[in-house]
Amino acid sequence: MSTTFETIALALDHHQAGRRDEAESLYRQVLQAEPADPTALYLYGLFNFEGGHTDAAAELFKSLIAVRPDHAEAHVALANLRHWQGAHATAIEGYRRALDLAPDHAGALVQLTSALREQGDLEAAVEAGRNACARVPDSAPARLALAASLLAAGDAAAAVEAYQTATALDPQSLGAQNGLTLALLQAGRTVEALAAADTALALTPQSGETWFLVGTALNQLGRTEEAVASLKRAAKIDPLRAAVQLNLGNAYVELDKAEEAATCLQQALAIDPTLKEAHASLSSVYLMAGESEAAEHHARLALELDPDMAVAHQNLASILAGKGEAAEARWHRDQVYGRQNLFVEPAVRPEATVLVLTTSESGNVPHRYLLPKARFTRINWFIEYATPGQDLPPYDAVFNAVGDADLAGPTLEPMKAFIAASGRRVINEPDQVMRTGRQNIPALLGDVEGLVVPQVARLSAADLARDGLAACVARAGLSAPALVRPLGAHGGQGLVRALTPEALAELRVAAGEDAYATAYHDYRSDDGWWRKYRMMFVDRRPYPYHLAISRDWLVHYESADTPGDPERIDEERRFLEDPQAALGAAAMAAVSAIGQRLDLDYCGVDFSLLPDGRVLVFEANATMLVHPEPENGPLAHKNPAVATICEAFQALLRR
Fold it and tell me: Can you tell me whether residue 356 is helix, strand or coil?
């Protein structure tokens, strides 16, 4: 007849071999004969825990502790079970009881650190992790637990050191390499993070977590196309991880691929509907696509999950301002910038740090490609929320990105105060920007030879409400045909045309908002097409940017379908390569004079060329968008011109 020891040994053999029915039968046999046998209680408790029978496991561990209160492993086993159940306080108490009995118990030391971190007691977790490393200095798990706690506590530099020690102790640990990668990313050491991720991939090429970290590092380095490829691999390995879809969606946003971005962000929310960052990012995508209702929906969902989420407040402010709800829009801006008015976007290898004076309103100069994030650290200062004598991080240059004179009012006083106090040169002086309000352009450019500058009138909301649009337009000395647009609108947004007095009388403008009326000139070319040229000025020198050719009078580059027409692409290419030959010497001289008259360091003009050779000015200001096209796309011929503009701007920064 077998002894108790032999029966337990046989049960353990079955247990370890996965023969669970045989193992359970033998464990029960022993405990039926000897209910207080500590070894059987412990092993059968582990057996039940592994099998998901946590209540039975807990009772067995508690029975063992009752029999052997000095059994450290029993306390650890019960604490592990409670830890797994999410009962962190009970688990922590159990680990501490085990450590009272066995102060150097590696498992208890490590798990106590983890439980404290997961409970949110980060100071105690770091202390426990340091104690674990002191007691078991050669334990890689102890170093990992300490590193994770340091990282959660915001001490990325110390976390890097702890992860490096863990990788030295266990070079084959994927968790240590991935942890080191994450810590390096949070420490801003992105190049080193990518190298650590490569080491992790050498250990486990099919690690979804590692490909996720590679994608994150590549995106931070500005290598967005490569980041997308890595994140797609991560998504293939781990299709149900919401964070992968979130980061992939945000990478597509960087590439201006709104449809792909929306798809990924929707997938992230299908996996985790409570992912606030996905709601906020999807709100941004919809806002850029002009789908304001969907943008508002997701912004409000994000704020339900996190009432302090800055991006959601920013998006709602923009949406509400567009709907004429100025007071509520201002409230949302206040929620963000009243708490924090300075946001730093660090570059990995910065060529320069640029203080960007910006506004919470619309009308900022789009500078994403002028100051690429991989090369320039951007300090975005929402200047209307500046506080007197506010301390600023060190910077090399100052760029006033408030480019719309109509929306710059709240920024003028704090901006002038800063300029006076700092004594620094500012790219685009605010007083010069204020000269470029739409209603000022006729007086500013009207006497330039070769230009046609239509008459413009600003119509006040009060006058519009009292007298109506047609009467206000007539009083300003204008008549049909005329263009009407909202204040602060660019790129044809909200622009309508009234060709007859009757059409003008039927037009309505948004209540409570000023509007602009502009004399309309038919600028259709002799071939029946409408053309809109854009010329940028950097330090007052002209640089061609694009030529849009459309069958519609309201020319939008995006809707003109230029990619489908080789002839129009060739015409644009000729303009970009030699604008003087495309426009003619007289027209080129007139356009060049615009840059001198605007007298801004960075700005642009949209215009057309009339059949008689004169230049018809549409608008001239600093808010013009410049962006590259996909390298392999049908509009890649624009990219040399874009690069020239951006390089000229960056040279201006270095002066």
Answer: strand
**Which of 377-381, 387-391, 450-454 has the least mean pLDDT?**
387-391
Of 222, 352, 74, 90, which Cα lies nearest the Cα of 628?
222
Q: How far apart are CA 209 and CA 191, in angstroms?
A: 18
Which percentage of the chain shows pLDDT scores above 90?
78
Measured CA to CA, the distance from residue 223 to residue 373 in angstroms comes to 11
Gap between the Cα atoms of 615 and 535, Å rounded: 12
Domain termination site, one of 488, 519, 550: 519
Measured in whole angstroms, the distance separating CA 161 from the mean position of its chain's CA atoms is: 29
DSSP character at residue 364: B
Cα angle for residues 477, 483, 495 (degrees, 5° grid): 145
Do 565 and 473 belong to one domain? no
What CA–CA distances, in Å, run from 476 to 131, 470, 509, 514, 527?
79, 10, 16, 14, 34
**β-bridge partners, 459:** 515
Neighbours of 86 (CB within 10 A): 11
Q: What is the mean pLDDT of residues 606-620?
A: 95
According to DSSP, residue 483 is labeled E
d(CA 418, CA 420): 5
Q: Which two tokens stand for residue 574?
A: 């000729």
Question: Is the separation of the CB atoms in 126 and 146 below 8 Å?
Answer: yes
Q: Identify whether 308 is part of a domain.
A: no
Kindly report which listed range (101-105, 138-142, 375-379, 413-417) carries the lowest average pLDDT score: 413-417
Rounded Cα–Cα distance for residues 264 and 306 (Å): 21
CA distance 158 to 162: 6
In terms of DSSP bridges, do strands 530-538 and 541-550 run parallel, antiparallel, or are they unpaired?
antiparallel
3-state SS assignment for residue 399? strand
Strands of 541-550's sheet, edge to edge?
Answer: 451-452, 615-621, 602-609, 530-538, 541-550
Single pTM value for the model: 0.82
- Based on the structure, what is the number of domains in the chain? 3
pLDDT tens-place string over residues 512-564: 788 899 999 999 999 999 999 999 999 999 999 999 999 999 888 767 777 77
Question: Tokens at residue 380, please?
Answer: 């975005």
Q: Taking residues 406-422, report their average pLDDT.
A: 87
Give percent above pLDDT 70 in the chain. Answer: 99
Same domain, yes or no: 555 and 637? yes
pLDDT category at 639 given cuts 50, 70, 90 is: very high
Residue 58 lies in a domain: no
Scan for tokens 């850029």, then name that residue: 288
Which residue in this structure is represented by tokens 């901006």? 415
> Is the Cα dihedral 511, 519, 554, 258 positive or negative?
negative
CB 8 within 8 A of CB 40: yes
Query: Which DSSP helix (H) or strand (E) runs through 185?
Result: helix 174-186
> Residue 45 falls within a domain, yes or no?
no
Looking up residue 555, the CATH number of its domain turns out to be 3.30.470
pLDDT interval class at 107 (50, 70, 90): very high
Considering 404, 434, 464, which residue would you say is the last residue of a domain?
Answer: 434
Q: Find all residues with CB under 8 Å of 71, minimum gap 6, and list them.
A: 38, 42, 64, 65, 101
Could you tell me if 539 and 621 lie in one domain? Answer: yes
Per the domain annotation, does 370 fall within a domain? yes
Q: CA distances (Å), 188 to each of 183, 216, 376, 389, in order?
A: 9, 12, 14, 29
Length of the chain: 655
Residue 467 belongs to domain spanning: 455-519
- Helix, strand and coil content of the chain, in percent to the nearest 5, comes to 55, 10, 30
548 and 589 share a domain?
yes
Confidence grade of residue 2 (pLDDT, cut at 50, 70, 90)? low
